[in-house]
């Protein structure tokens, strides 16, 4: 750990942890959507929108703190990148739920549950990792595992696309379902961006 003579603003750690905990809430809502009746999905989407707004508030709080802090715990650009990537995850998850409702999807294709399971695991790992930013310890396994999960998400996404284009769906349905699975894939990518940013921070601080 690099030795510092100046005090550091520590509230960032709590705000990153809160943002990651909110993402866990979002991932649970995604899981809930899978088992919900079509009639119950609008209410789940409403709760997801509330979670996404809470995520926006958390991100704005980090940016406000960043702009008002003279000393930061690590590089300003990395704080901005980490906050933005966490916010992206919530945005993509909320978009996926909203699309399911707006498109009035009767049944999601087999394989979407695997996408959401990967996102749920990545959310748990991210929430567990954020408190370790205080010490920069015990983070290596986190970013390795999230990168592995993202590779798994890529494979699931490719299988889903092959399934959607096998001729069993009409063209309009393919377009709707493809947009949903693509957004879920973007959420997996965003988790990897968070992990890569954490790795960058840890390397700089070592």
UniProtKB/TrEMBL annotation:
Lineage top rank: taxon: Bacteria
Lineage of origin: Bacteria, Bacillati, Actinomycetota, Actinomycetes, Kitasatosporales
Membership in a protein family: Belongs to the UPF0111 family.
Pfam families for the chain: PhoU_div (PF01865)
Gene3D superfamilies cross-referenced by the UniProt entry: Phosphate transport system protein phou homolog 2, domain 2 (1.20.58.220)
Record-given protein name: DUF47 domain-containing protein
Signal peptide: none
């Amino acid at each position: 750990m690099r030795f510092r003579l100046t005090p550091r603003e520590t509230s960032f750690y709590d705000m990153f942890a809160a943002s990651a905990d909110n993402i866990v809430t979002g991932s649970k809502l995604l899981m809930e959507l899978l088992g919900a009746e079509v009639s119950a999905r609008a209410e789940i989407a409403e709760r997801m929108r509330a979670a996404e707004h809470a995520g926006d508030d958390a991100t704005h709080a980090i940016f406000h703190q960043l702009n008002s802090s003279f000393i930061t715990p690590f590089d300003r650009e990395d704080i901005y990148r980490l906050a933005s990537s966490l916010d992206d995850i919530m945005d993509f998850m909320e978009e996926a739920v909203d699309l399911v409702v707006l498109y009035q999807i009767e049944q999601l294709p087999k394989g979407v549950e695997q996408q959401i399971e990967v996102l749920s695991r990545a959310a748990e790992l991210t929430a567990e990792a954020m408190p370790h930013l205080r010490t920069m310890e015990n983070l290596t396994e986190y970013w390795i595992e999230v990168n592995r999960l993202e590779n798994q998400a890529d494979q699931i996404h490719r299988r889903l696309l092959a399934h959607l284009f096998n001729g069993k769906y009409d063209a309009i349905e393919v377009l709707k379902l493809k947009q949903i699975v693509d957004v879920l894939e973007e959420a997996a990518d965003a988790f990897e961006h968070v992990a890569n940013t954490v790795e960058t921070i840890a390397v700089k601080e070592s």
